[in-house]
Write a structure and sequence with these properties.
22 helices
Length: 465
């Protein structure tokens, strides 16, 4: 006579209920759910980067809606947990920003409420990370980003080659298809490779500027180097990067390669330097490479983009500190950097560019900037799945672009860095390569975009162990 099935005890019931609620454990349904959200996020920061949603006179990036809705959806299913350390610092940093902006508003009447509210609304999504049971998806997410950027690399190369041989004249296809009120304005989306040239810089059509397109290409190149995805992808992305004629993209790539060089040692660095020398020599023989080379000393020229991006913003900040010493601590008011840039452009026609770091220093002061820096470290860099990608992305947003309030650019860090905190992706691959001359099974799986790393048990409160 068959024995009756044992009745699960209370602890077993609770464990099963927790698994259903949190999404812990292996689950193809949960994996598909997470991949769908992260894919939508990648599409929003690339394909839909230029699209805006009019909201009470303010243009809201599509990526904000996708990120907030996606994280809320995953949070409901238990696939996302709070990054408690980052959240605590975020609350303090925002409180200091609001306090500094409020004092400046009372003292001098300077401040933009919209800019102040937008800051926490954009950055709050970095207070969350994926549940440890979903971290094995990182390789698939990185592979999907690389494939997406390879597609746009082909578009960018065709844009440039078609114009160079006279087979095609540049047309902003997105502007022709999408109503102007649904597109972001104020960006140099379409402009020539040099003054008087009929050839427009490659922008992949969907990116707000060639420089942003170049930085996304550089990020994809670094991802292929981290994962060793194959030289075909890397070379194609690099060719598209040259077509952008963008110095910031090259700086982004150079910074990331330097991080990789520190991680991988002299032998890898020697190979990369040799390859870069060959590619650089070939590029310099082309008109595009010569244009890039001619811009290497432009930071010393007053009207150059290098000076407007890396020199003049900080000169303006120091001038403000000398005029009003309190601005060192409190800043000059929320939105003051954008207001100053608009006034300079109206008076001189020069588009001065305040990077994320410069905007924080000018608008909120030194203390708020330091606290915000600690938050970014905890939310993007510390225990990152790929130190190479996270450090490079933070460097770009802080120094190369005015991305402090540009979620359509910033949010590429969510699927590639912030949401996978605690997963030692790059460290696992590096260890596998050291153990095996051919890179080991983990590297082979990563090339296929589907590595499976052992999932550590989650702590009861979802904190990082």
């Amino acid at each position: 006579m068959p024995m009756p099935s044992p009745i699960p005890d209370l602890a077993t019931h609770q464990r099963r209920a927790t698994t259903r609620r949190t999404g812990a454990g292996p689950s193809s349904i949960a994996d598909r759910r997470v991949m769908a959200v992260l894919t939508a996020l990648l599409v929003s920061v690339t394909v839909l980067q230029r699209l805006a949603l009019p909201l009470g006179g303010v243009l809201l990036a599509v990526s904000v809606v996708v990120a907030l809705a996606g994280i809320g959806y995953l949070l409901y299913h238990g696939d996302v947990v709070e990054n408690s350390a980052a959240t605590r610092v975020f609350v303090v940093a925002m409180a200091v920003c609001f306090l500094a902006a409020g004092i400046v508003l009372l003292r001098s009447g300077v401040g933009a409420v919209t800019s102040l509210v937008y800051l926490p609304a954009i950055w709050v999504v970095f207070c969350f990370r994926l549940h440890p049971a979903r971290q094995h998806l990182y390789g698939r997410v990185a592979d999907r980003f690389e494939k997406l950027m390879v597609l746009f690399a082909v578009v960018g190369v065709l844009q440039t080659v078609g114009q160079a041989v006279g087979a095609w004249t540049y047309v902003d296809v997105v502007l022709r298809v999408v109503p102007g009120e649904l597109l972001f304005t104020g960006y140099n989306t379409s402009y020539p490779i040099q003054y008087g040239s009929p050839i427009i810089k490659a922008n992949g059509f969907v990116f707000v500027e060639p420089s942003i397109y170049a930085q996304f290409l550089a990020l994809a190149i670094l991802s292929t180097l981290v994962r060793r995805s194959g030289w075909v992808r890397t070379v194609l992305l690099a060719v598209a990067l040259v077509c952008t004629i963008s110095g910031t993209g090259l700086l982004f790539l150079a910074f990331g390669v330097a991080v990789l060089a520190v991680r991988r040692g002299g032998r890898w660095t020697a190979r990369i330097v040799a390859a870069a020398a060959v590619i650089g020599a070939v590029a310099l023989m082309t008109p595009f490479g010569q244009i890039i080379a001619s811009r290497t000393d432009e930071t010393s020229e007053t009207n150059s983009s290098g000076s407007l991006r890396f020199v003049q913003p900080y000169e303006r900040i120091v001038e403000g500190w000398s005029t009003d010493p309190w601005s060192l601590l409190l800043g000059q008011g929320a939105g003051s950097a954008d207001d100053l840039a608009d006034r300079i452009f109206a008076a001189t026609g020069l588009p001065i560019n305040f990077s994320g770091l410069a905007k924080l220093l000018m608008e909120y002061g030194l203390l708020a900037t330091l606290l915000f820096g600690v938050f970014v470290w905890l939310a993007v860099v510390r225990r990152s799945p790929s130190p190479t990608l996270s450090l490079s992305s933070v460097f770009a947003s802080a120094v190369l672009t005015g991305a402090l309030l540009q979620p359509q650019v910033l949010y590429v860090m969510l699927p590639l860095c912030s949401l996978f905190l605690g997963h030692h992706h790059e460290a696992e691959l590096d260890a596998s390569r050291r153990r095996s001359p051919r890179g080991g099974a983990a590297v082979a799986a990563e090339r296929a975009g589907g590595a499976r790393i052992t999932v550590p048990p989650a702590s009861p409160n979802g904190n990082l162990s």
